[in-house]
Design goal:
Elements (H helix, E strand, L loop, with lengths): L7 E4 L4 E4 L5 H7 L4 H5 L2 E2 L7 E3 L11 H7 L17
Parallel strand pairs: 1-4
Antiparallel strand pairs: 1-2, 3-4
Length: 89
């Protein structure tokens, strides 16, 4: 994972709360380790100024995914992982 970090909020069934630093991210990953696509595809709430991503209906109108946003901000949240959260060689 890159050194650069931009805080965001994640709201899902298995994990929710602020992700304010890189050390918070492994907790989110661990909650969704069976399917990284859920995290990658979480959409940004179009009604929030703060980066707020989630899997609930209020996020369905979002046009940017967590994966897209993270890459745009220089954060490689999913680098080297397959969809099941396994690190690839």
């Amino acid at each position: 994972m890159s050194e650069k970090w931009t805080p965001f909020y994640f709201n899902g069934n298995l994990w929710f709360g602020p992700v304010t630093e890189a050390d918070d991210w492994p907790g989110v990953l661990g909650s969704y380790c069976d399917d990284m696509d859920i995290l990658k595809g979480a959409k940004r709430n179009p009604h929030s100024e703060f980066p707020d991503f989630g899997t609930y209906a209020e996020y369905d109108d979002g046009t940017e995914t967590l994966e897209q946003w993270a890459k745009k901000h220089g954060m490689d949240l999913f680098g080297g992982m397959d969809q099941k959260g396994k690190v690839q060689p």
